[in-house]
Amino acid sequence: MAQSSTETDWVSRFADDVIAESERRAPGKPVVVASGLSPSGPIHLGNLREVMTPHLVADEIRRRGHEVRHVISWDDYDRYRKVPAGVEGVDDSWGEHIGKPLTSVPAPAGSPHPNWAEHFKAAMVESLAELGVEFDPISQTEQYTSGAYREQILHAMKHRARIDGILDQYRTKAKVQAKKQQQKPVDEAELEAAEGSGAASEDDGSGGSAGYFPYKPYCGNCEKDLTTVTEYIDATTELTYSCTACGFSETVRLSEFNRGKLVWKVDWPMRWAYEGVIFEPSGVDHSSPGSSFVVGGQIVREVFDGAQPIGPMYAFVGISGMAKMSSSRGGVPTPADALKIMEAPLLRWLYARRKPNQSFKIAFDQEIQRLYDEWDKLESKVAEGAALPADAAAYSRAARTAAGELSRTPRPLPYRTLASVADITAGHDEQTLRILSELDPANPLTSLDEARPRLDRAENWITTQVPADARTVVRSEPDAELLGSLDDEARESLRLLLEGLDSHWSLDGLTTLVYGVPKVMAGLEPDAKPTPELKAAQRSFFALLYRLLVSRETGPRLPTLLLAVGADRVRKLLAA
Ligand SMILES: [Zn+2]
Q1: Cβ atoms 333, 326 nearer than 8 A
Q2: Which single residue of 34, 385, 398, 552 could bond 349 by disulfide (Cβ 3.0 to 4.6 Å)?
Q3: Taking the model in full, what pTM does it have?
């Protein structure tokens, strides 16, 4: 592996290899990296790794001053395989389009887009722009129907026996592998992600009685791919097919026919050669023995006189916390769903800090608050120059691209604080501004815009991901029964708290106060080290405050909660 001074993380190491390989294969030409996405339905958040892995490597190469082309191949000429559940504006009647190219299927009802593929592409394109991903889109529908691959298709047909021979070496291996995999429990989310990640399960074109053909026409009558090639004459390129769906049959000249495609296992290596791809990772479903990546490596060398890209396998990305909500909706989380609750740099960071072969989860649950804490801590370490090199590199890849900084929240207040405030104020702007300004009275917020877009993300998280029964509802009236039942010690601790409110009215001040009251009650100094007894006393004091303020045993952090409730209302609810 090449050494370089910037070799601090996985991205740099791949960039070293990809630059060296590109120089060897295509000296002086732009480096080409690739991703493939199938717009067969909403593009799953898990599939973002297909784009982020080459993006991060491409961005590093760009930073080093090389020209890079990140090709995103839209597999929009793939067949429509099934009607996804839970997509708005789609019902069972879409089932009649199964077998047609994705670009020939009508878009969901009410969509401004001309067809199915364009509809689902559009959402992804928008998310990629927000994520700072620069790419060169290639529509496979356009490529195939314009005849761009004519030479390659004729070449593959000419060498169909060779291709069949290569595929045959793997067919038995694949069967054995499939049997092995059947015994393994399969994670449902992984299965979903695998389905979304392209044509892994598509057949390889093993043919009927006329022999093997690596090419499949879409029917001239019904547009479906349920066709069988019945004859092919090499000399004239005359191809005869019949459709099992509608019975239509015709003879066309492949040297001028543009309504069909190479089968996936031939299509993919053909494109590696056509575009000169140096780097293209693939999901685990593509990397088993007999998989398209492995078979493709042999086909690209032996048939298309090209080379296989450097292609690391990436592990699946899971989602934590959204499962329940998404299944009730029938849908799957998309990158746009993630970008509603977290800023683009944070989402980029999740990919940058993990090697492609490490799996991780994207948090839609409480974990997002811890993740944001970790990110803020890293940011301050980077600012102090105290971050480890690999951590600093991951931060830099998340926060900016070769083109510049991603948009940033001017005053990045802690996400968990913003979420608590949003929880309590239910999005009331005036109240939110008051509370956020009181967090640090010496340096108050002048406008909510300073806390945006992070504030908006935290608000969205609270309203879309936190279940109603976990939301905080501040009492409107004191709990007279509970207050009446308190012993002298509890009353005294509440009195001490209320007495200190005004002089401690900031996030730091109230933190000192709520931890300090139990210390005073125990006769300890304010800076006393916590003992197990003191910790227990603090826990029961906090539980009492939660019960009196929000009728529960827990809630947002107390200092934030007190600020959010406001001093007057705190006095009203806690006066024993
Ligand atoms: Zn037909």
Answers
A1: yes
A2: 398
A3: 0.89
